[in-house]
Structure formats: structure tokens, C-alpha cells
Amino acid sequence: MTGQLRLIRLYRAVVYPLIQLTVWSAASLVIISAVTLALAVVFNRQVAGGLTLVDFVVRTLPQVAIDGLTIGFLYAMIALGYTMVYGVLQLINFAHSEIFMVGAFVGVEFMLLLNLPPDQPVQGLLLVILLTTLLGMAASGLLAVGIERVAYRPLRHAPRLVPLISAIGVSFFLQDTVRAIEGLVNNAFFRNYPSFPALNEPLTLASVTVAGEPVTVQMQAKIILIIVVSLVMLSGLNYLVNATRLGRAIRAVAQDQATAALMGVNVDRIIMLTFLIGGALGGATGVLFGIRVGRIDPYVGFIPGIKAFTAAVLGGIGNITGAMLGGLVLGVLEAFAGAYLSQFTGGAFGSEYKDIFAFAILIIILIFRPTGLLGEIVAQRA
Amino acid sequence: MPPLVQPISDVRAAASTIARPVLELREVHTYYGHIHALKGISLVVQPGEVVTLIGANGAGKTTTLRTVSGLVKPRQGQVLLEGQDITHLPPHEVAALGVGHVPEGRRIFPRLTVLENLEMGAYLVRDPGEIRRRLKFVFEVFPRLYERQDQPGGTLSGGEQQMLAIGRALMMEPKIMLLDEPSMGLAPVLVETIFGVLKQLNEHGTTILLVEQNAHMALQVAHRGYVIETGRIVLEGTAAELAKNPQVQAAYLGGLD
Ligand SMILES: Nc1ncnc2c1ncn2[C@@H]1O[C@H](COP(=O)(O)OP(=O)(O)OP(=O)(O)O)[C@@H](O)[C@H]1O
Ligand SMILES: [Mg+2]
């Protein structure tokens, strides 16, 4: 009985969420690709480079899909930090975007400190990046724990708006602190992640001909790395939350703090660990994000933070699977909008409108599902 | 005619000579803001006893249990567990010392499965073999829970949730179980079942402090009882004595005088 039970649990905790993640990714990609293609067919005309709109879409679709998934995974990881903290404290941790930013800075400083020659082979680089990611996780995780201790715990019984203000204050504090330190030490408050040709070189994953159109799927090594690390983290988190004693305690505290305490759970400790885990995920994401975009500054957390928060709401705030799904959907929407908005509107709306477009879709989704995509479970909180 | 209910001091004196009580409250005063909810509650539960605390709505029954388990802090007085002062301990430490509280309204974790709810009861137990042994016991007591183990707790019926709440506390193998109105909202048949189980558990050695508005049932399973009115103990005695007491009969047993 117990052996079988363990298998069922493992399935539920690891396999099922992964299947779910895959299905959701695939589904959102298929739906939005189909819509894009349909629109392309309807509004087909000549666009730049002697191509028709349909040709253009077919050629670029796989690449856009990959971009969408990559950014979607990053949003998902940040969103988890918001959603987990919201789950245990019903607090929107607005400082989470700065926890993410600090992770990115710790990562860049570490990599600059290593001062690697740019012609590193890819294996060594992977190791370095993993190490940097771990360091970013540690820094951001501890920072999140410190913030909880100093800025939120004393306000645990204050009206809800009070810790929210405190969170905003912490955000400004962190931005300005990083800015001051970088300014003093480097005379500039932005930093560039070192760029390595081996990581940027596009690897051709597939090259096929669809309807006479050459379609190649290429991925830079760093993008593959980002996707792999994200998947490992997301699965690890699922396992932790759904299949371990700690995860059970986190969920119990999220559902009923007083009763969890009656079971012997040290609620403060569980809240601390929740911040640690959420912060560590944010820090890892900060490093990966920095590697992807290259240049970072103290305000780099704001936009991804707002988007990840939106992703958490979209998925149903407090719901962990929902945060992953919300991140994916948002990332994919944004990538498609960024790639096609300009071509489809004949240049009237450039790709700089991608956020407006993505958010408009989100608002529409939330009008029809106010509790978020997977949010019905949150609505009946204990 | 001799008094049916002994004066409080006599019972206390008698009790303290029997053995070290599992639980003792000494002159406990608890406040909610400026509301004086408990006005000097003293009571004793001896090992192996079922003691009931009966009283009307708002009398302070729940507050008494919450004060014991540390969910609210008394402003004055002492709470002793097997002689150890637990007055100022946080609830998770009180639980670790062996107080199993089945709270008012059951408070099942709605989105944990039945099995996970039970495992939360054994949160402080690290040995998987021991957890399995306790699970087996709970499933023997409540076979219904075995059938439902994979279902989210929130989807159980009221009676099943009460079984789960009791089962969850049993997973702690507590020195004393605090039960807050286990009969609330249950059909008479289920009330019988639950009280039958409590009796059985007590026969196996579980010490119980039982809060009830259903004084009739409570006095059937309890050895002794206390009557609480607006934050004060107004009567105490053996269950039989209380059941015969005209005041109790009038106020809590449907007025048979
Ligand atoms: N959280 C609270 N804040 C303020 N007052 C409270 C609180 N909880 C209880 N009280 C008050 O304390 C008194 C005792 O309440 P308590 O819940 O202990 O009563 P009870 O005997 O359990 O009643 P019931 O049978 O209705 O459950 C009541 O007057 C109640 O209004
Ligand atoms: Mg009550």
C-alpha cells in the first residue's frame, strides 16, 4: 500500500505538474500561433523583403515561440515568489522585483570578478553560470528573509495596506542602495554581463521546409541553458511544495495559520522559509535574465516584476501552478506581440506596443475569469 | 439534604491528592482587547479523565481551550501541563508538549487531502514507521477516512470533517485532547458515533477535555464536569452530580425540573 502510495505521490508532485506545464505551454503556443497564422492569411499582403505576411509568419514562428517560452519561464519563476508569499501572508511583496534585481547584480559582479577570457569553451561556461546562479539564489534568498524580518514581521498584525507601503519603501531603498554602491565603486550604475561567443552562437536545432518555406529553429546555448535551468527549478519547486513535509507545512500555513500552529508548525519559521524559497527563485531568475539581456541597472527589476506579478494574478494569486501558467501565457503573448504587431498593423503600432497589447489581452481574460486561470481554488480560502 | 455539588475548594483539594494533573488552570484571566472573556478560571484534568466544560453561547468555553493551547495569552493566571508552566508558550510549542486541540468548527485544511491533513497532525513526528503506525490506528477508528484519504479535506461532509479533525489530533498522540463542540452541526446518529469513539479512546487511555453545548451527551461520557457562565466557573462536580443538579437541568438539559 505504501509503495504504491509513494508512486502516486511522486506522480502527483513531479510528473503531473510537468505534464501540465508542457500541455499548457504547447496549448498556449498552438492557440496563439493558430490565431496569428489565421490573421496572416486573412490580411495577407506583401511586406518588407519581398515576402508575403504568411511567409514571414511561417519563417519566424518557431523562433518567436522559443522566445516566448524563454521569457515565459523567467516570468513564471518570478511570479512564484509573489504567489508563494501571497499564499502564506496575503501580502503583495512589492520588493520582490528588487530582490530579483539584487540577484542579477550579485551575479554580474561575480562574473566580472572571475574575469574570464571571452573564448571560454561552453562546458566551463555552463559550470560558471550554474555557480553564479547558485550565488544569486543565496544572495536573494537571504535578502528576502531579511526583508521579511525587518519590514514585514513587525507589521504582521497591522492593516493590510501598511506592509504594502513598507514593501514599496523597501523597493526604493534597494534600488537606491544598489545605485549608490555601483555609482561609488564603478562610476556608473549599470553593469554588463560579460558576453561569451560560445554562449551566443546559435545552434541549429531543426531545419525543415514547410510549404516551400525554409524554416530553421535556432537557439543560442544560453537560451537552452535558461530553459533547462527554469524547468529544473520549476519541477524542484513543485516537488518541494507538493511532496515534502516542508511543502505540506507551507500549504497548511497558507490555508490556516492558527490551525497549523496547533499541529506544532512554527508558523514564523515557515513564513521565513517561504521568503527564502521565493527569494532564491527570484535571484536565480535575476542571473538568467541578466545573461539574456546583458545590461542591467538598479531599475531592471521593475518591468519584469510588474509582469510577473500580473502573471501571478493571471494564474490565480496564491496558486503555484497558476503562477507558472500565468508566466508562460504572458511570455508567449508578449513575444508574439513584439514580433508581429508591427508587420500586422503596417507599422502603425511598433513592437514597443507589445506590453499594451499583452496587458489588454490579460484584462480581457481577467474580465471573464476574475479569480485568474486556476484561481477558483483560492476564492474559497479557509 | 446534602449538597449535590461540592464546593470548589474541596474538589480541588481532593484532586490534588490523587495524582499530578495532566492539565491545570489557575485563576486564568483572558481578555480580547478590553473584553474580559475569562474571569479567573480554575480547573483540573486528571490523567485518564474525560472532563466536560459546559456553558451557553459566549460563556468562554472556546476561549478557555484557546488559552490552554496558546492561541490567546492570558493576562493573569497560570496554565500547567503535567506541572510544567506553559502559560507563555507559543501554540506550536504547546502542541509539541502534547496538547491536541480539535478546534471549534473543525478547521480542516480544505486543500490538503485527508491523508495530508492527518500527516499534518503528525508534523512533529519524523519517523515514517511511527507515522504509518498512527495512521493505521486512525484508519481503524475511522474507516471512513481510509476510503477518503485522497480527497481534499474541504470536500468532506460535516461529519467526516469532524472525524478528520479528531483523527488529526489523534495523530499527535497527545497527552490531552481538547475538543471544542465535536457535536456541532451533526445528525444525532453521527453525534452518537463521535461520542462512542471518544469513550473508546478514553478507555484506551486518552485524557480529554470536552467543550459542549450538548450537555446531555457530554455528561454521558464525562467523568466530571464544570459549568461556565460569562467567564466564570459556577458549578463543578461529577457527571452524575451535574446531571442531577436542578440548575443544570433547567439551563442545559432542557428543563426537567
Ligand atoms: N476574537 C474575539 N474578539 C473579541 N471578543 C471575542 C473574541 N472571541 C470571543 N470573544 C468574546 O469572548 C466571549 C467568550 O467567547 P467564546 O468564544 O469563548 O465563547 P463560547 O463559550 O465558546 O461560545 P460558543 O458556545 O458560542 O462557541 C464572548 O463574549 C465573545 O464575544
Ligand atoms: Mg465556542
Polypeptide structure, described:
The complex is a heterodimer of chains A (about 375) and B (about 260). By secondary structure, chain A is mainly α. Chain A has one domain (about 50-380): ABC transporter involved in vitamin B12 uptake, BtuC (Orthogonal Bundle). Chain A is about 75% helix and about 5% strand. Chain A has helices spanning about 1-40, 55-90, 95-115, 120-150, 160-185, 195-200, 220-245, 245-255, 255-260, 265-295, 300-315, 320-345, 355-370, 375-380, and strands spanning about 45, 50, 190, 200-210, 215-220, 295. In chain A, a hairpin with a 2-residue loop joins strand 4 (about 200-210) and strand 5. Mean pLDDT of chain A is about 90; it is low at about 375-380. Chain B has about 260 residues and is α/β, with parallel strands linked by helices. The longest helix of chain B is centred in the C-terminal third of the chain and has 16 residues, at about 190-205. Chain B starts with 7 loop residues before the first helix and ends in a 5-residue tail after the last helix. In chain B, strands 6-7-8-3-9-10 form a 6-stranded mixed beta sheet, sandwiched between helices. A 4-stranded antiparallel beta sheet of chain B has the order 2-1-4-5, covered by helices on one side. Chain B is built from 11 helices and 10 strands. Helices cover about 40% and strands about 25% of the residues of chain B. Chain B has a domain at about 10-110 and about 175-250: Rossmann fold. At the A-B interface, helix 8 and helix 9 of A face helix 3 and helix 4 of B. Bound molecules: adenosine-5'-triphosphate (ATP) and magnesium ion (MG). Magnesium ion (MG) binds near residues 62 and 104 of chain B.
